[in-house]
C-alpha cells in the first residue's frame, strides 16, 4: 500500500547507510522508521544481507510488534523497537548495530566516560550501559524484555531519552534513536566514534580524568542550548 511507502523508503536508505559507515557486517543490525499518525513502523527484514535489500522488502509492523504488511519476517529485534516507540512518544527512528567499539564497552559492562568535548557535543553524561537482564527475563519474551531493560535503565539513572539518544545493552550491543532516521543513524556513528576515542584514551592514560563540568556545559549548550550558535 502506498500509504506505507514513505517510511519504507526512509527505512531502506537508512539501513543501507549502516554498512557504508562501517557500523555493521553481514546481516548484523537494523534501522526502523515510525509513522505515528498510522501507528506503525518500517523495519529491516530478518537475516537479509544489506546488498539484497529493497524498499518493498521493508516490513511494516505496529507498535505491539505485530505484522501489518510484508512478505518477509521482520527483524528479530522488532519487539525491542516496538517497546521503545510505544513508551517514548518523541522518537521517529531507532538504530541497532553491533559496531565494534560500542559493543566492546557493552560487553565490558561499562558506561563510556565523558572524557572529551566530542562526547560533550552530543550529551552531558556518560553513555549508559543497561545491566544484563536476569534469567527469568531471558527465558521470557527476550526482545520485549530488552526494550524494558533500556527503559528501566533510563528511569533508574533519571536520564532523558530526548537528551541522551544512545545506550549500551549489557553483554549485547548499542541502540540509538532520534526524531528522524538521519539523526538516529548519525547517533549510531557518533557513538561508535566516542566509544573508540574513550578506549584509546584509556590505553594512553588509564587514569584520564573526566571532562570538567564547565566544559561539558559549554560544549553541549553551544550546540543544543537556548542560545546555541553552532552551525548555520
Topology:
Elements: H1 5-20, E1 30-35, E2 40-43, E3 59-62, E4 67-69, H2 78-87, E5 93-96, H3 100-108, H4 117-120, E6 129-130, H5 135-139, H6 142-157, E7 166-169, E8 174-178, H7 181-204, H8 213-224
Parallel strand pairs: 6-7
Antiparallel strand pairs: 1-2, 1-5, 2-3, 3-4, 5-8, 7-8
Helix pairs in contact: 2-6, 3-7
Report on this model:
- The protein is an alpha+beta fold and 232 residues long.
- The chain has one domain: 3-Layer(aba) Sandwich (L-fuculose-1-phosphate Aldolase), CATH 3.40.225.10.
- Helix content is 41%, strand content 14%.
- It is built from eight helices and eight strands; from the N terminus they run H-E-E-E-E-H-E-H-H-E-H-H-E-E-H-H.
- The protein has helices at residues 5-20, 78-87, 100-108, 117-120, 135-139, 142-157, 181-204, 213-224; strands at 30-35, 40-43, 59-62, 67-69, 93-96, 129-130, 166-169, 174-178.
- An eight-stranded mixed β-sheet has the order 4-3-2-1-5-8-7-6, with helices on both faces.
- A hairpin with a 4-residue loop joins strand 3 (59-62) and strand 4 (67-69).
- Helix 2 (78-87) runs parallel beside helix 6 (142-157).
- The model has no long low-confidence stretch (mean pLDDT 96).
Amino acid at each position: 500500500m502506498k500509504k506505507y511507502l514513505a517510511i519504507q523508503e526512509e527505512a531502506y536508505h537508512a539501513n543501507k547507510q549502516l554498512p557504508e559507515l562501517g557500523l555493521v557486517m553481514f546481516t548484523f543490525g537494523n534501522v526502523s522508521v515510525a509513522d505515528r499518525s498510522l501507528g506503525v513502523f518500517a523495519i529491516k527484514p530478518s537475516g537479509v544481507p544489506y546488498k539484497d535489500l529493497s524498499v518493498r522488502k521493508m516490513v511494516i509492523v505496529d507498535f505491539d510488534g505485530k505484522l501489518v504488511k510484508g512478505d518477509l519476517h521482520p527483524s528479530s529485534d522488532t519487539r525491542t523497537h516496538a517497546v521503545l516507540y510505544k513508551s517514548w512518544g518523541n522518537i521517529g527512528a531507532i538504530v541497532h548495530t553491533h559496531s565494534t567499539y560500542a559493543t566492546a564497552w557493552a560487553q565490558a559492562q561499562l558506561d563510556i566516560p565523558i572524557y572529551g568535548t566530542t562526547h560533550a557535543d552530543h550529551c552531558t553524561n556518560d553513555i549508559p550501559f543497561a545491566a544484563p537482564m536476569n534469567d527469568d527475563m531471558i527465558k521470557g519474551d527476550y526482545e520485549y524484555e530488552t526494550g524494558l531493560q533500556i527503559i528501566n535503565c533510563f528511569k533508574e539513572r533519571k536520564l532523558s531519552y530526548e537528551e541522551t539518544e544512545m545506550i549500551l545493552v549489557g553483554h549485547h550491543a548499542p541502540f540509538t534513536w532520534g526524531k528522524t532516521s538521519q539523526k538516529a543513524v548519525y547517533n549510531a556513528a557518533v557513538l561508535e566514534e566516542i566509544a573508540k576515542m574513550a578506549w584509546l584514551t584509556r590505553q594512553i592514560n588509564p587514569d584520564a580524568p573526566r571532562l570538567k563540568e564547565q566544559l561539558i556545559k559549554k560544549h553541549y549548550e553551544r550546540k543544543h542550548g537556548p542560545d546555541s550558535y553552532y552551525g548555520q
